[in-house]
Amino acid sequence: MHPVVDLIREKLGDTAVLIGDDVAARPVSRIIKSGCAAMAIIRPKSTGEVALVMRLCHDAGVAVVPRGGMTGLVGGTLVGPHEIALSLERMTAIEEVDTLTQTMTVQAGVPLQAIQEAAAAHDLLFPLDLGARGSATIGGNIATNAGGNKVLRYGMVRDMVLGLEAVLPDGEVVSSMFKILKNNTGVDLKQLFIGTEGTLGIVTRAVLRLQPAPRSRQTMLGAFRDFAAVTQMLAHMRAVSGGNLSSYEVMWRDYYMLLTAPGRHAPPLDQNHPFYALVECEGADPAGDDAAFQAHLETAMERGWLADAVIARSEAERLQLWRIRDDVHYLTTLSPLFVFDVSLPVSAMDSYVDDLRAALQRRWADPTLISYGHLGDGNLHLALSCGSAADKEAVEQLVYTPLQALRGSVSAEHGIGVDKKKYLGVTRTPAEIRLMRALKAAIDPAGRLNPGKIV
Known about the structure:
There is one protein chain. By secondary structure, this protein is α+β, with helices and mostly antiparallel strands. It contains 14 helices and 18 strands. It has helices spanning 3-12, 21-24, 47-60, 112-121, 138-144, 151-154, 227-240, 253-259, 286-302, 315-326, 346-363, 392-406, 424-427, 430-443; strands spanning 17-18, 40-42, 64-67, 84-87, 94-98, 103-107, 124-125, 161-167, 173-176, 202-209, 211-212, 216-224, 245-252, 275-283, 308-311, 338-343, 368-374, 379-385. Strands 15-12-14-13-17-18-16 form a 7-stranded antiparallel sheet, with helices on both faces. Helix 11 runs antiparallel to helix 12. The longest helix has 18 residues, at 346-363. It is globular, with a radius of gyration of 23 Å. It starts with a helix and ends in a 12-residue tail after the last helix.
């Protein structure tokens, strides 16, 4: 054990330091539930304690890897035996909800769901939403610039953070805890820490931008005859909803079949349609919004875009429709399982999936390709099962290589971590990658903070 661990224990107390079996019992990643290899897990309770840990590790030449709710899928929190893992699990305070400025000030270890519930208690909305809401922490959401189900209307986390506090690799604290929307005073420093996966600094606190809670919500699961009808319906809802369209989640038939298989969710619509979409609007006029939503769907039916539909008539029915979209854990029934998170122009999405399916079929017998995603913002999720675990790189090549010509991204919302590092050049130019490396070298010249991730 490195002497710095004993020094941290002396400064922060026994409860702040986990070693041995207590470390090994922690998850390696979202997929690997135990076996963390860190020399120790350090659990500070404040920004000051995080800064102290970083100073001590910086002086000792020990690398630090930040850990959030461990819901990531790209190896962004992988930690080695000569590294310290830093968990903000004891930094869970919601410090303030300001209803006038519609902001919330939080510590980085607060779970997303707790933030959603705290906002709702004040008749406000924190619009970030994703399936791992109960486990994912806001610090991890910020570090990965999380997207989720409502990007179409509210944007990604980058659009929901007004201010933040972060600790640099040498322990210096950068505090930019503004509640204001306009702050045109040079470089927006908080953006250095949003989406950079803890490689430039550890986010410890944040000021989040809230929205008025919706007074009405309309949710529909629709079936479509082809992808053109899916996109025509999207364009229609964007045009007529008056800005109320918050979610447009597409599911290819393979995904719908997986989630509505016997013993899972009862299929609310026939399973023989090639495409399904979960559509949700949020507004402020319950009676008027309900009538308008119904009229929009009738128009879509008349024009032949919508083949069939079921509308949620209660919150329980709404949640059940969302479970068909969110219960992605059923993907783990596939083996081997390869999961991907890409983005590309919506106009190219259908042919991209068809071409990928054909490429898989040429290479392996009976491959499985499950496709679904946030269609409105061009985010496509893929789950593949073919060959063996040893075929991972070959599958990655088939998924990622076509994206370069389409000006797509190898990561829409999950980040780069370790898993996608060698494919960064598919999306980013050499000049962009050099600039990323220059930023890392300027802020963390010794490479001590979350080393080996992104670039």
